[in-house]
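Continuing from the previous page of notes. For each protein in this section, the sequence appears first, followed by its C-alpha cells. Read the first protein now.
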Amino acid sequence: MTGGEGLKLYLDEQLSERIAEGLRAAGIDVVTTREARHAGRRDPEQLAYATAEGRALVTMNVRDFRALLQASPPPVHAGVLFLEGWRGNEFEGIIAALRAKAEQYPKGLAGHVSFVRRPPRRPPV
C-alpha cells in the first residue's frame, strides 16, 4: 500500500514513533505529529492538518475529538480512528489493529469515524 493508494494515517501525539515505524514496515503511509512539527497544537488544528493532507487522524483522545466531531456543523475530515481501551505501549497490537483497518478501508475513511477497540485481556492462567 504505497504511492498514494490506500488509507493514509496521521498519528496524534500520544502515539509512539514505534507505531509509525511498524506501520511503514507494512507499507502504510503514516505521518506523526512530531514529524509534521505539530506537537502541542490544539485538537482542531490537528484535525484540520490531517484533513488537508488527506489523512485519517488516529488518536486515543476519544473524549476531546468526539466532542469536536459533534460540533454543529460537524467539521469536514478525512476520517478519524479512535483507539479505545489500548495502552500506549501495546505497540504490536496497535500496529496489527491499524493494519487491519487499512485493509478494511483501502480507499480511505473520508468523513467516517471508526473505533479500534482493544480485544479483551485474557485472564492469567
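Done with the first. The second protein uses the same format. Note its length before scrolling.
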Amino acid sequence: MPTRYQYEMILPRRNYDYDVMGAVTKCTLSEKEGQLAQTLSFDAVNIVHSGTELLSLFGPDNPVRLLADDGESSGEVFQGEIWNQTYNEEKKTISYTCYDPLIYLQKSSDALFFPAGRSTLSILQEICGKWDVPLDYSYESASMEKKAFSNTRLSDMILEILEDTKRKTGKPYQIRFQGGKLLISGRGVNTTRYELAIGKNLTSVQHTISKENLITQIIITGKASENGGVPVEAVLTASTAGQRGTLQSVRSRSGDTSLAEAKKEAQEELDEHKNPEHTYSLSAPDYPFLRKGDSIQVNTGSFSGVYYVKSITHELTSHTMNLEIEP
C-alpha cells in the first residue's frame, strides 16, 4: 500500500515550471468507459506568484503535467493541456479541466473509407498516420469488413475497429495515452498487480446486475430491393431468450460479407450479451498509478480473483479512488 501521497502539478510558462499543487483545493484524475482521453480536473485558489495572479498566468492550451510519489513508485501520471477554465469571482478560485492528447481524437471527425480485407493494424496505422498520432500497437489484428465512415469522430472509428477485432478474436484490449504515444495492447498487461481486499484496504463494494445491454435475438438483413423492402436472411436466437425475453438487434449485411461470416459475428455478439451484465464498484485508498485496463487482485468475501479496471477516478485531495471492474 502507498506509504505517502506527494504530487506535483507542473504548468510550464516562459521557460519556468510552476508547481501549483499548493494552491489546489480539489483534484480528480479519471478514465471513463468509452472515452479515450484521461481527464484531470482541479480547483485552485487564485494565488499571486511574483506579483502575477494565477488566473493571468495559465489558461486553455497551457501544458500540464501531474507527477506522483506514493512511497513505492514515482513518475508521471498525466500529461496534457488545459481545455476549460472557469473563474469564480466570489470565491477567488479557478476551476480547470484538462485532457491528455487523445482528446483531439474525440473532438475531431473525418470521412474515411477502408475496403474489405484490411487488417486492424493497417487501418489504425493509416488513421494515426494521417493525424500525426504516434502509435504503439501490440494488440491482436484481424481482417475487417468494408468500413465507410462519414463525418465520424476519430475515436469512434478507432473503437469500432477495436470492438470488431475483440469480437473476432475473443481478446479484450486497452487503449490509452502513455509515453507520448497512443498505446493499444491486450488488457491487463500491467507489471504491478495491486490487491484490493475487505479488511485490508477496500472501503466500499457494490455489485450491480443489469439487463441494460442484453440481446437475446439478432436478425440479419440483406440488400434492400427496388421497392424498398429489406429481406431478412437469418434469425439467431440466444439460448437465454426463453428465460430473459426477446430483446432484438438488427445487423445489416454488406455485399462484402458472406452470410456465413455475418452469422458468425452475430453469434459472437449474442454470446457476449445474452446474459445480464455484472458491474462491480469499489472504493479504496488511492493507488495513483492504477489505470483503466489494468488487472487487479480482488477479494471481497462474496467474489474474488483477477479483475480488470473498467473505469477509475482518483480523488487526489482525499487520497481515495473509485473504480468499476469487470471479470
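What the second structure shows: The first strand starts at residue 6 and ends at 13. The first helix runs from residue 54 to 57. We return to this in next week's lecture.
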